[in-house]
Amino acid sequence: MHLRLDWSLEIPQGRMPLVFCLVAFILTFFVTRTIVRYIRSHAGSDKPRKWWQPRNISAGGGLHIHHVVIGVILVMISGISMVTLAVDGGVPEFTVAATFFGIGAALVLDEFALILHLEDVYWAEDGRTSVDAVFTAVAVAGLLVLGFNPLSFFDIDIWREDHNLAARASVVALAVITLALAVVVLLKGKLWTGLIGMFITPLLFVGAFRLSRPHAPWARWRYTDKPRKMHRALVRERVLRRPVVQAKLWLQHVIAGEPRFPDDTEVNQQLDKEIHAAPAPPPDPQAVPEKATA
Questions:
Q1: For 46-85, how does the pLDDT look when each residue is reduced to its tens digit (9 = 90+)?
Q2: SS3 category, 194
Q3: Is the predicted pLDDT of residue 177 greater than 80, yes or no?
Q4: What is the full DSSP assignment across 87-153?
Q5: What pLDDT does 293 receive?
Q6: Hey, how many other C-beta atoms are within 10 angstroms of the C-beta on 211?
Q7: How far is CA 265 from the centre of its chain?
Q8: How many Cα atoms are found within 13 Å in the side-chain-facing hemisphere of 81?
Q9: Which helix (H) or strand (E) segment is 10 a member of?
Q10: Pairing, β 10-11 against β 64-65
Q11: Number of alpha carbons in the 13 Å side-chain half-sphere of residue 180
């Protein structure tokens, strides 16, 4: 299969991924520049933004997430996907390239906090973001090595052998349900459950129907007017998170070159920092106040 252009240029099939990569690179660059210029030109406007208008991406505490963070995440995902989906893993050249990708990925993720905060926070509290990013990468790669596939709902006999519209529609519906559950789990603040649940689907059902973490967007939308449910979420979070925080702090100390078990004071401080009730959603500035009735 060849792609023939109007000027009689033939592109071999083996180079098609490179062509698509180049086209995506150029289009993304120009679209990104356009969006950034639009945001900058409207920075001083107090007019409420429509849902479709471009705006800066922010996290908790007013942290501005630059698009380089999204780029790094996409590069990592695509890189490990290409390594995983290699047709012949025995090709020595490909194995060497995959090894160098692993080395580069480790170097980048070790400085992920620097990319996220755009300042040197390597030894500061915010520097633990790099450790979390490395843990995530190791967990995903480990699941792939063990044979788990996040897109396993497409790799079944009914999809490959039965071309019936109803059969394939059922597979697509299953995929949509799985992704919807993953979104709900992530909105409930259960990042690890959502991540591993993409490989082990039953975890998504557990995470989607259990209580939300108290500071997550789901709790902000659904629990702020339900104090009893918010209290249950806070109590449950503190009980379940304590051993996790202890293990996390110990491992982070080891990786940071300070091998020691965290004391109760350090654990309590981390719990106080992580566990809090989500603030109520701000009122809609475009909402029309109701008139007082006599």
A1: 777 777 778 777 766 667 778 888 888 888 878 877 777 6
A2: helix
A3: yes
A4: S-TT-HHHHHHHHHHHHHHHHHHHTHHHHHHSS--TTSGGGHHHHHHHHHHHHHHHHHHTT--TTGG
A5: 42
A6: 19
A7: 31
A8: 8
A9: strand 10-11
A10: unpaired
A11: 7
CB 271: neighbour CB atoms within 10 A?
A: 17
CB 281 within 8 A of CB 220: yes
pTM value? 0.57
Tokens representing 245? 């925080």
How high is the mean pLDDT of the chain? 75
Residue 206 identity: V
Q: Taking the CB of residue 94, how many other CB atoms lie within 10 A of it?
A: 15
112/117 Cα distance (integer angstroms): 9
| Phi, psi (rounded to 5 degrees) for 3 | -105, 115
Whether the pLDDT of residue 170 is over 50: the answer is: yes
